[in-house]
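WARN retry 2 of 3 for item q-0093 after timeout on previous attempt; input resubmitted unchanged.
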Amino acid sequence: MSNEVWITGVGSLTNMGSGFDSILQAVRQPRSVFMTAPVSWPAYKGAPDAFMARLDGAAELELKKFETISTDRATAMALAAAHQAWLQAGLQSLAKPERAGVYWGTGMGGLDTAESTYQRLLLDRAALRPMTVVRIMANAAAASIALKYGLQGTNQTYSVACASSAIALGEAMWAIRAGRLDVAVVGGAEAMLVPGVMTAWGALKVMATRSNTVDHRMPCRPFSSERSGLVIGEGAAAFVLESKAHAQRRGAVPLAEIAGYASTCDATSLVQPARHGQVRAMREALSDAALQPSNIDSLNAHATGTDTGDVVETEAIADVFGIQGMPPVTATKSMHGHLLGAAGAVEAAVCVASLQSQTTPATVGCDPLDVRCSNINASAKPRASKMEAVLSNSFAFGGSNASLIFKSVKV
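OK item q-0093 returned
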């Protein structure tokens, strides 16, 4: 019996738009859509004059349909993306709801609500909302998705910084592969573009700002010698995963297969990446998918546009694939920014779109390449590519690494 796990639905809300079609469009016609901090932010001591990736107008309209008194912005994003994925998958009522679960990732949960709560409590001296706790709790999104669709199986939330939703995808795949579930709604959401949180990120001195960015049209430039730092974004992506057998019984059309996964820990630093942990994650994901490095047709790098991160990942990719065997590499944070806990899910959606369109996405602004990244096979323009398998990296503070492999499905 096949243990393949199929992706039958994808939904997303990002600065690039609403829905899987917006991801497909960005893969084919890349664009860098960022904004700078609101003019009110300088009132907050230390608030950076940073670039950010907010939801675009279409995504914001979709989000409003899911905002309630008990949903933080991140939870509303999760519900909106899950709704899109559910509709695309064509799922109706579930014959066995106890065999359907939720695996969700978020780096910081309901921080939008948390910040406004501190404002009300400490500055405004106002009463707090009755649903404050459930808006802030990290598992609010997963619980809300389960409630909406009656998913009675395991309900898991992963908070592993920037690897959160990649790990959620991999763990859900393993659960279905092991026969514990037939269906899972999986993904990640993050909403933290508020002054307190962004000021904390600014203190790390890793962000692209108006003062340190060469070209304001392209503030996030992974692998480039002219990069200035990362750009924080917000958004969500969701997937319906199913066992091949379950999907076939109901006549579902697969978008891709999630075929391999591994997670590792560097165990060396809270903030500095380590090459050995990244190498192991990629190699173990390849082993899990029963693939060789030569089978990978495109690689989605974690690359955020920071000096250390880009260089270490470049070295790790070279260790795994070799200079001559390196596949085309892309860093799509140059378009959608770094969505932290949702990054792995959004980039998984990009990988599915890459397979669907047979296109390796652009790394906007990667030219001129940093000499230390000159071996990376990146391009500032999308490339038509014959591809069967794509590998995606998500690396996190705390030393956590996750690699996922997606494959085309022939039916």
